[in-house]
């Protein structure tokens, strides 16, 4: 017994010793990320519920607030996020094929799109600040209905709309900032050549997170920007 | 997660479709459809989300059933949260 050495198999990062095989390890990592995303759905879900309840109570205020958002910047930002999702998906593909240079370029492009989104969002928030649409002492929503004397809105429920607007887009932006941080790390490791066609799990599950944040925005855009854009009678 | 490698042409097709749907949903919001404005906006958003989940997130090609169960369960939890809460708030004026 004593003279037979315990066989320690040498594995790469694609197969750590506590997994039966590389496929099990990949599946475990991916399942873990999906479970995390399930908790994220509930995290955002509470806000979507608050939105739903208040929108059903204060429809006029929500519609007026929605009309005041910049639909062009909102649409452009949606497109920016969709482009970033494409670069992430193509990045995973580049990793699968072992194309390190292309992977680094696509990851960098994703980061650029991420910053573009945050920049445009910042411009929109600043517009709201200048228009006194940030809830609080200086809040004033009179300008929302100045041209529409037939519509009556109350200031307090109008603040609820903008509170939810800032909370939801703010939480989403926080996820974007974290996502950019993750992708900076992934880019660094990709550039170092850590990912191979056998081991690209971090790219794959980092991508899952990025796509999830994109999906949240896919719902935020119509719910916040497109409530009531039709011509007012 | 399967190691199925999708063609880049497929990714570009999904990308173009998502961009078109974004323009469509923004444009349709200016047309007066009555209560159906919200319905159309949410249907388009759900189609977009499905495209991202199935193709960009590779769920269509995964062999792992557990992943699919987690996704369906997550959506079901969200449905419970929204539906049961609205069953309360939506019917309070009736009492």
Briefly note the CATH topology name of chain A.
Four Helix Bundle (Hemerythrin (Met), subunit A)
Mean pLDDT of chain B: 92
* Helical percentage of chain A: over 70%
Q: What sort of overall outline of chain B do the alpha carbons produce when their principal axes are compared?
A: flat
Uncertain regions spanning at least 5 consecutive residues of chain A = none
Quaternary structure state of the chains depicted: heterodimer
Q: Estimate the global geometry of chain A from the Cα principal axes.
A: elongated
Structural class of chain A comes to mainly alpha
Uncertain spans of chain B:
none
Q: Strand share of the residues of chain A?
A: under 5%
Number of continuous helical runs of chain A: 6
Overall number of structural domains of chain B: 2
Which features characterize this protein?
heterodimer, A: 233 residues, mainly alpha, Four Helix Bundle (Hemerythrin (Met), subunit A), elongated, B: 95 residues, 2 domains, flat
Describe this structure in words.
- The complex is a heterodimer of chains A (233) and B (95).
- Chain A has a single domain, classed as Cytochrome c oxidase, subunit III, four-helix bundle (Four Helix Bundle (Hemerythrin (Met), subunit A)), CATH 1.20.120.80.
- In chain A, 70% of the residues lie in helices and 0% in strands.
- Chain A is built from six helices and no strands.
- In chain A, helix 3 packs antiparallel against helix 4 and helix 3 runs antiparallel to helix 6.
- Chain A starts with 21 loop residues before the first helix and ends in an 8-residue tail after the last helix.
- Helix content of chain B is 71%, strand content 0%.
- The longest helix of chain B has 25 residues.
- At the A-B interface, helix 1, helix 3 and helix 6 of A face helix 1, helix 2 and helix 3 of B.
């Amino acid at each position: 017994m004593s003279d037979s050495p315990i066989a320690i198999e040498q594995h790469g990062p694609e197969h750590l010793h506590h997994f039966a095989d590389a496929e099990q390890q990949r599946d475990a990592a991916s399942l873990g990320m999906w479970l995390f995303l399930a908790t994220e759905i509930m995290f955002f879900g509470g806000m979507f519920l608050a939105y739903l309840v208040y929108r059903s109570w204060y429809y006029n205020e929500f519609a007026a607030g929605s009309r005041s958002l910049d639909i062009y910047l909102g649409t452009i930002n949606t497109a920016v996020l969709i482009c970033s999702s494409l670069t992430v998906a193509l990045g995973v593909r580049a990793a699968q094929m072992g194309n390190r240079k292309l992977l680094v370029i696509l990851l960098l492009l994703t980061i650029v799109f991420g910053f573009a989104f945050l920049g445009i969002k910042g411009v929109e928030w600043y517009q709201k600040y200048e228009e006194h649409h940030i809830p609080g002492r200086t809040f004033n929503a009179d300008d929302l209905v100045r041209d529409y004397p037939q519509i009556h809105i109350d200031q307090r429920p109008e603040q609820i709309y903008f509170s939810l607007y800032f909370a939801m887009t703010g939480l989403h932006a926080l996820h974007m900032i974290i996502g950019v941080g993750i992708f900076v790390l992934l880019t660094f490791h990709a550039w170092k050549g850590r990912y191979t066609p056998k081991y690209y799990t971090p790219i794959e599950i980092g991508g899952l997170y990025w796509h999830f944040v994109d999906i949240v925005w896919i719902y935020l855009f119509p719910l916040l920007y497109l409530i009531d854009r039709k011509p007012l009678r | 997660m399967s190691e199925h490698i999708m063609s880049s042409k497929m990714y570009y097709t999904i990308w173009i479709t998502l961009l078109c749907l974004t323009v469509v949903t923004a444009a349709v919001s200016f047309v007066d459809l009555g209560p159906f404005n919200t319905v159309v906006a949410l249907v388009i958003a759900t189609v977009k989300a499905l495209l991202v989940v199935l193709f960009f997130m590779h769920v269509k090609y995964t062999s792992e059933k557990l992943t699919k169960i987690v996704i369906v369960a997550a959506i079901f939890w969200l449905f419970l949260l929204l539906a049961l809460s609205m069953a309360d708030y939506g019917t309070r004026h009736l009492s």
